[in-house]
Write a structure and sequence with these properties.
It is built from 2 helices and 9 strands. It is of the alpha/beta class. The chain folds into 2 domains: 1-67, Hexapeptide repeat proteins (UDP N-Acetylglucosamine Acyltransferase, domain 1), CATH 2.160.10.10; 68-102. The strands form 3 sheets. It has a 4-stranded mixed beta sheet. Strands 1-4-7 form a 3-stranded parallel beta sheet, with no helix packed on it. Strands 3-6 form a two-stranded parallel ribbon. The longest helix is centred in the C-terminal third of the chain and has 32 residues, at 70-101. It is flat, with a radius of gyration of 17 Å.
């Protein structure tokens, strides 16, 4: 079967992932190791996914799975938000430059 796999920005895949034909992984999707997406699966983004078949993982399970503290998880989320804001600012500045040139 031949279907395109679409990946958004900042999609992170762990080891031994299986992404089937026709899947769409939107921005900021994180697949933990050994996660498998079945055909034509749509990940909405901004979430962590695990397992076979793929399903969303919640904060408490992430903390247990990755063996990290809640503070580390909050710091990571804050960093992601800062990166998105910086990207939006950069896009706005480029749009203003283009307007001035015209």
């Amino acid at each position: 079967m031949y279907f395109e796999i679409k990946l958004g920005d900042n999609v992170t895949l762990g080891g031994f992932n299986n992404i089937a034909p026709g899947c769409e992984l939107r921005d900021n999707s994180y697949l933990l190791p050994m996660a498998a997406a079945t055909k034509h699966n749509l990940l909405k983004g901004n979430n962590y996914y695990f397992g076979m078949p793929l399903r969303r993982i919640f904060k408490k399970k992430i903390i247990d799975y990755l063996k990290i503290s809640e503070d580390n998880l909050i710091q990571t989320e804050d960093l992601r938000v800062k990166q998105e804001n910086a990207k939006l600012e950069r896009i706005k500045k480029e749009a203003e430059k283009n307007k001035k040139k015209k």
